[in-house]
Amino acid sequence: MKKDGLLSLIEEQTTISFTGKINVLSKKNNQFEGVIYLKEGNLVNAQYQGMKGKKALFNLVFDDIDSKTDVNYIVEPEIIDPKPTDFDIEFENFYDMVKERYEKFLSVKKYRPPGHLTLVVNPIFISEIKASQVSADEFDVMCAIITAGKVAEVYKWCPLFDLEITKALVTLRSKKAIMVLT
Question: What is the pTM for the complete model shown?
């Protein structure tokens, strides 16, 4: 995997121990899409399309790798609060995580259902003893389905990474724990 685009920019900023943020702005209208926070050269937080933390950071990088974004990156020095941050990752560790997760992401990508579909939790599954056989990830996805409904919203609002959500959806569907309405 090449260090192109956003990964190259992050590496450059971490090399100089940058403190501040990398703003992500739409090329169409300069609308705010997200932000990556760095403190003394380490990645410490991110926001992207309503997501926060590591999930936002990885989705932003994966979208950049897949060329799904039409954005500009603006580097802006800023004092970052000394309060506890969501994470504190050096670039090389982050890059290793990206390579590992991106491979897994690609392997489950073909199983991701279309975003327009509406999902519901099967009440019969819940009422039976089978409900106690769900994993923590499956439970998080079921909660997101109850709250959101549409597949696209489940991916946006569930705290899990996309590949974990996809795996949980496949497993829940095989257990007949969820149903597709449209």
Answer: 0.84
